[in-house]
Write a structure and sequence with these properties.
Length: 362
């Protein structure tokens, strides 16, 4: 099947079952989800694949994935950037958006399962990760992109990475509120980071060439809830023709003839967040020509040379396929996680947002 047009209530469970099985076939016994069999793993992409498993109801496998991260977490709350066979591939840096994403994954898991015990069990991991993140926030609000081996922050920031951290801080706050834990510092950091992303572009890409050629810098602030719908629509319109290739998907970078499936899935969700449902359905419908017979999806396609490139079927691409399908069809209670900025308040009932339980005062 080369085309798949999805709308509310039409989650293609049978069609995507092989995609779920593909992720499971790569997951190792200890819970790690590498990019592909024999490949490396990184915390962010590992979590993206785990969220795909949660959408599919493979809760035990998802819990194993998060418990693998518990075992690998360093004493300062961080993780190394890459692992091979569950050992650090190198130790030269720890990337902040990789560290923060644990909150997004665990809040996503909770929204679907309402598993209070698992949220309680994993909260210390989230708390330590957020403590690490807050230590890397610049006085001007941005989050430094990485920390070097000696523990010193690498003092520049990326729009895409900070947008991801912004969403993760939202999720961490919601976890804390649900568990009746104090999170005032997280709220302050979240507010400052959002203001910097919206109003201070000079705080990003200060020591290297601008990353605006990357499509993620275009749509990730929308996906993370940085902009309201009007601002999101304007941002989509501004660079649509730059990054979207008809009948293929979203370019990774504006100056290379390379469409990538994961970025196209994330753009699908950003379009839904911007209220552009027809465009979201269209983009997603193009992606299944890159699906292999085993249910895995190729990372990308170079359309000038007409070749799959690289010849990799990554688990995080499969995870993104599942996340976008859920967002389009509203299949699970977490379907709108990336479509709305829903920051719980200490005196609210979570039911007013996601259908959860009464929240304790914090």
């Amino acid at each position: 099947m080369d085309s798949l047009m999805l709308s509310k209530g039409m989650f293609p469970e049978a069609f995507l079952s092989d995609t779920v099985d593909y992720i499971l076939s790569v997951q190792t016994e200890d819970g790690c989800i590498p990019w592909f069999k024999g490949g490396k793993a990184d915390p962010w992409d590992h979590i993206e694949a785990a969220m795909g498993l949660t959408i599919a109801g493979r809760y035990e496998a998802a819990r194993k994935a998060y418990r693998w991260l518990q075992e690998q977490q360093l004493s300062d709350g961080s993780w190394y950037a890459n692992y091979q066979d569950s050992k650090p591939l190198y130790c030269d840096k720890r990337e902040t958006n990789f560290v923060a994403y644990i909150a997004t994954g665990l809040w996503h898991y909770y929204l679907i399962t309402e598993d209070d015990a698992f949220l309680q069990e994993t909260f210390p991991m989230v708390y330590a990760a957020m403590d690490f993140i807050l230590q890397q926030q610049a006085p001007t609000g941005e989050i430094y992109w990485a920390v070097s081996e000696d523990g010193e922050p690498l003092k520049d920031a990326l729009v895409t990475a900070c947008s991801s951290v912004y969403k993760s801080l939202e999720c961490a706050i919601n976890i804390a509120v649900t568990l009746g834990q104090s999170c005032l510092r997280w709220r302050e950091a979240h507010q400052r980071l959002g203001e910097t992303l919206r109003f201070h572009p000079e705080c990003f890409d200060r020591t290297w060439e601008s990353k605006e050629r990357y499509s993620m810098d275009w749509f990730y602030p929308i996906l993370a809830g940085v902009y309201d719908k009007a601002g999101a629509k304007a941002r989509i319109k501004e660079r649509w023709d730059t990054f979207v290739k008809d009948d293929m998907g979203c370019l990774c970078v504006s100056d290379e003839p390379w469409v990538t499936v994961a970025e196209s899935c994330e753009l699908t969700m950003a379009l839904l967040a911007a209220g552009e449902r027809s465009k979201a359905m269209m983009i997603y419908s193009w992606l299944h020509q890159w699906r292999d017979a085993d249910g895995g999806y190729w990372t990308g396609y170079q359309y000038v040379e007409k070749i799959i490139w690289p010849e990799e079927k990554t688990t995080w691409t499969a995870g993104a396929i599942l996340l976008a399908a859920d967002a389009l069809t509203e299949h699970t209670p977490a379907a709108r996680l990336f479509l709305e900025n829903n920051l719980l308040q200490a005196t609210e009932k979570s039911q007013s947002v996601y259908g959860g339980q009464f929240l304790k005062q914090t």
